[in-house]
Write a structure and sequence with these properties.
alpha/beta, Rossmann fold, L-2-Hydroxyisocaproate Dehydrogenase, Chain A, domain 2, 2 domains, 11 helices
Length: 333
């Protein structure tokens, strides 16, 4: 009876199979994310790439009796092999934050990593949907876009900065403050994915009752929630498990949209016309068969949120410019 249920699950999703590549699969985010993706029956092939240890991660995951065939690729020389046939590419690669570091402190190392991986995507699987987790997302998404433009392969509907962790944190913290179910609390978070550029729209949550002090405290905690994890890990890492959960949520939503399910939305940092002068911005977007569909506007905001947005814009513009300038000067090795 169990085998029968399993076979039906496989057969019903056979036509919806997707090949997914995870670049940075042996890292702190990559391993738990790969495990979560291995459990998704819409994924037929899971290609895992990293500089070291990936064959072992893949072998371990391959013993799990779910659909996805899992293969590991190790070393820069095998990047192109790892990307062959990929329809969705998830990039958690890069170094993690340490105590006292901002996401911009990661720029010099992670910018080069993302540029190289984006170049591989544009060369091998240019039609793939590219999901950027590597920080600083405010800069690494523009880097990815510029590298793909250089190759003549950029499609703004297929490049996403994964800001879902901000949404997950917001849902957790707001539900705690209101005494609600965490799973049923969904908060729209706009802006970017670093500190003051993260703006939870608490005024748009129906039925919520906040004091101004709560609004300010919750906003700050959502903006700097990553610091709690970095400090709690005593310098041994940053948010990996919660980020893996958030990334899996976004991948799952994207796969639903690619299958043609209507009304699938998530917040994501994409090329956007929402804020003049800010070419990349995170709002709620519809995920469709083509990728990014309707990009939702910010909507009504409180005076507090309007002021926070005004503060976020210059920081976003600077981060985007930094990424673009880096990508234009970057030379493949």
């Amino acid at each position: 009876m169990i085998a029968s249920r399993t076979s039906r699950a496989f057969s019903t999703s056979a036509a919806k199979a997707t090949r997914v590549a995870v670049l940075g699969a042996a890292g702190g985010i990559g391993q738990p994310l790969s495990l979560l993706l291995k459990l998704n029956d819409s994924i037929s092939s899971l290609s895992l790439f990293d500089i070291v240890n990936t064959p072992g991660v893949a072998a371990d995951l391959s013993h799990i009796n779910t659909r996805a065939k899992t293969t590991g690729f190790k070393g820069k020389e095998n990047l192109h092999k790892a990307l062959e046939g990929a329809q969705v590419v998830v990039i958690p690669a890069g170094v993690p934050r340490k105590p006292g570091m901002t996401r911009d402190d990661l720029f010099n190392t992670n910018a080069s990593i993302v540029a190289e991986l984006a170049h591989g995507v544009g060369t091998v699987c240019p039609d793939a949907h590219v999901l950027i987790i590597a920080n600083p997302v405010n800069s690494t998404v523009p880097i990815t876009a510029e590298i793909l433009k250089r190759l003549g392969k950029y499609n703004p509907k297929k490049v996403y900065g994964v800001t879902t962790l901000d949404v997950v944190r917001a849902g957790t913290f707001v539900s705690e403050s209101q005494g609600w179910s965490a799973k049923d609390t969904d908060v729209t978070v706009v802006g970017g994915h670093a500190g003051a550029t993260i703006l939870p729209l608490l005024s748009q949550i129906k039925g919520a009752n906040f004091t101004q002090a709560q609004i300010e405290a919750l906003t700050k905690r959502i903006q700097f929630g990553g610091d709690e994890v970095v400090q709690a890990k005593d310098g041994a890492g940053s948010a990996t498990l919660s980020m893996a959960f958030a990334a899996d949520r976004f991948v799952t939503a994207l796969l639903r949209g690619l299958r043609g399910e209507v009304g699938v939305t998530e917040c994501a940092y994409v090329e956007s016309p929402v804020v003049p002068g800010v070419p990349f911005f995170s709002t709620r977007v519809e995920l469709t068969k083509e990728g990014v569909g309707k990009i939702h506007p910010i909507g009504a905001t409180s005076a507090f949120e309007a002021a926070a947005l005004e503060k976020a814009v210059p920081e976003l513009q600077a981060s985007i410019k930094k990424g673009v300038e880096f990508a234009k000067a970057w030379v493949p090795k």
